[in-house]
Amino acid sequence: MPPEARRIVLLDLDAFFASVEVLENPALRGKPLLVGGSPEGRGVVAAASYEARKYGCRSAMPMAQALRLCPHAVVLPARHHLYRDYSRKVMEIAHRESEVIQQVSIDEAYVDLTPVSADMAQAEALAHRLQGRVRVELGLSCSIGLAPSKMVAKVACETGKPSGFVVVRPGQEAAFLAPLPAGDLPGIGPRSEERLKAHGLVTLGDIARAPVGQLTALLGPWGAVLQRRALGEDPSPVEVDRETKSISAEETFAHDIADEAPLVEQLERMAREVAESLREHDLVARTITLKLRLADFTTLTRSTSRPSATNAADAILADARHLLEANWTPGQPLRLIGVGVSNLRLLHAPGQLSLDVLRLPPQT
Amino acid sequence: MRLNCLQENLSHGLGVVQRAVATRTTLPITQHVLLTTDEGRLKLSATNLEIAISTWIGAEIQEEGAVTVPARLLTEFVNSLSRQALEVQALKHGKGITVKGDRVEANINGADANEFPPIPNVNSGIACQVAAKALRDGIRQVVFAAAIEDSRPVLTGVNLQFDGDQLTLAAADGFRLAVHTTTLARAVSEKLSVIVPARTMSEVERLIEGDDPIDVVVTPQRSQVLFRMKNVEMVSQLIQGTFPNYRQLVPQEHATRVVVGLGELQRAARTAAIFAKDGSGIIRLQMQPAGKGGGKLTISSRAEEVGEHVSELEAGVEGQDARIAFNSKYLTEVLNVIGEKQVSVELTTSSSPGVLRPVGNDRYVHVVMPMFVQW
User: I want to staple B275 with a disulfide (CB 3.0 to 4.6 A). Which of A52, B253, B301, B336 is the partner?
Assistant: First the structure.
């Protein structure tokens, strides 16, 4: 007897940032929305509503490009604290179904229903209730993939977006994956996909049926792993409170930089990125690290610890600048600069409900 | 500059301004202390550009002047000496001092006093006066609820609302809200609401000595606030922005109200905290109104695979049976400052905010969000 099949949900919020903006301002409903940086500041799209996606706008696309595709789109700056509050509420709702939850990003979480359901039918009912609660209690639309593994749940969820509800029963994984293009499998990037295609391996079914030797010849040992995944095998567990140990950002320059101003500009951007990521994960950090790579590839990392933990970009930047001044002489060319934070802890205990302070109107 | 002063006075003065000395900075001069002769006394000042503290100590001035030296070095040196009279003299070129005592002498290199950042001068603005104890109690009861460095800067401060002779202090961090109201010794001329960095407020609390009333002055541009205490002045930048209208966060109704001895609840919460250390710090509270026996409050906590604990307290319970879980840190922090002999806890549901008040004192209210737990 194989071990009992698991029942894992991937819950993915649909166009999350944009949907929250619509909740906050219902007049935006039905309009193409782009959330992210300004087109002048070389900003990128953090989220696009489905109306904007019809025009080809996608997240991570430069805002200026997105606006060329959809000139009448409404552009809004990202309000991460607001999204975090909503995200936390979604996770609170998910916690009512199961305590085994792995939040993988601000808008995505695996919920293991195995401990709270007897079979797939019951898990399906719980997953339906979860999707309904998110819609009714918060007004947010989410897509659900329910499957015996995380990977299949993820793919199932993607195929149903938006507002999807896709169930893959145990034993049906390979059949479900077979017709899908190879690139739909997490782990197959555009380059691997091209290479596979060139050898006639277009769908996941093709990969599942291919001789293992052909795959390993093309992709190395990873090829064998991919084949098992294309068959729907993914034993990885839903990891509760998966601990993030550090968060960092770095930039390798096209040309070495020896002037302070552009370096500080890079540090500023990276400090903001790292701070944002801390806040998305509800973390604060005590140790700030600066990484420098000199023209001769010597790499230095220098750290400093703060008296109190932080998730503020200003604080991270101040420490990073301090480390830069102590470890680098203006004029010395650098190939790479990076900022990282570690010594992390959760900003608050899991399960802690929040007070809606910032949703309140300001004092008059 | 040349003057005589007592080691203990200089040591005390340096201790007062030390908290405004920058610790991590890209501007080394902010790690200095500025020494200035000022109307027959020695004025010590330090600033990290967010706050500036000045204090005056008794000194016999021989020659007027000003000089700046590294604060930490001077403090460590002065603190290493026994009580004695000291002579402080600026070095010839003005960039440092010589300190002479009883068979001890030190030269400390410094910088030109002109390089020291200007200490803001707050002379005019909206002013009021508050009793030392009133301000100290007010700060103590709210400051811990402010958010630690956050993307939402207004929450890292304490909101001070002045209205006639009333001062309301409030702080909130997204999980709890603390509000304290007090009466001013001298009223303000106009309504005013400002946000002072929590760190400033903690320093003010630390600096208040004795019973002398404290002057509070907000600059006309509402960019800075001055706290004038006996021999000490502290000027702080204000946090720009508007504080949320928190009053609607305080629930107006409740389904259950418990009154319990503060000391007993504090002790039970501390005991529970031992078992709540790992994981999420969950403390569970269950209230039962008087049936056959008296009302009771049961406090419990458990650590997976380690053990669990239950305490039972006699309590006055009005309304329905109720249960709620709080983070042990949030619960102990408010109990530590609430004062009075008894505390009341008001609840609506196990997922809506709990309200704690000192019984017989309507000047303080604390709202705290519960934790979601499986019962």
Answer: B301
Whether residue B120 lies inside any domain: the answer is no
Asked if B131 and B243 sit in the same domain, the reply is yes
Residue B373 resides in a domain: no
Contact A352 B374 (CB under 8 A): no
Tell me which amino acid residue A118 is: A
CA distance A187 to A196: 13
For chain A, give the mean pLDDT.
89
Determine contact: B280 vs chain A, CB below 8 A: yes
Distance from CA of B375 to the nearest CA of A (A): 12
Q: Is the pLDDT of residue A1 over 50?
A: no
Q: What would the DSSP string read from start to end of A196-238?
A: HHHTT--BHHHHHHS-HHHHHHHHTTHHHHHHHHHTT------
Burial class (CB in 10 A: 0-12, 13-18, 19+), A2: exposed
Q: Could B249 and A357 be called an inter-chain contact, meaning their C-beta atoms sit closer than 8 Å?
A: yes
Calculate what percentage of chain A has a pLDDT beyond 70.
Answer: 97
pLDDT digits (tens, 9 = 90+) for A26-66: 999 999 999 987 777 667 888 899 999 999 998 888 888 99
Contact criterion met (CB < 8 Å) for B371 and A311 = no
Helix A212-219 and helix A190-198: axis angle, to 10°?
Answer: 130
Q: What is the ipTM of this complex?
A: 0.82
Residue B183 sits in a domain of what CATH number? 3.10.150.10
B167/B178 Cα distance (integer angstroms): 14
CB contact under 8 A, B193 and A363: yes
Indicate whether B325 and B351 sit together in one domain.
yes
Nearest to A360 among B24, B245, B281 (CB): B245
Residue B187 shares a structural domain with residue B157:
yes
Catalytic machinery residues of A: 108
Of B174, B177, B372, the CB nearest to A95: B372
CB distance from A311 to chain B under 8 Å?
yes
Give me the domains of chain A, ranges plus CATH numbers: 8-14+81-173 (3.30.70.270), 16-79 (3.40.1170.60), 178-230 (1.10.150.20), 246-359 (3.30.1490.100)
Q: Does the distance separating the beta carbons of A319 and B24 come in below 8 Å? A: yes
pTM for the structure as a whole: 0.65
Chain B residues close to A241, C-beta within 8 Å: none
A146-189 confidence digits (pLDDT tens): 999 999 999 999 999 999 999 999 999 999 999 999 999 988 88
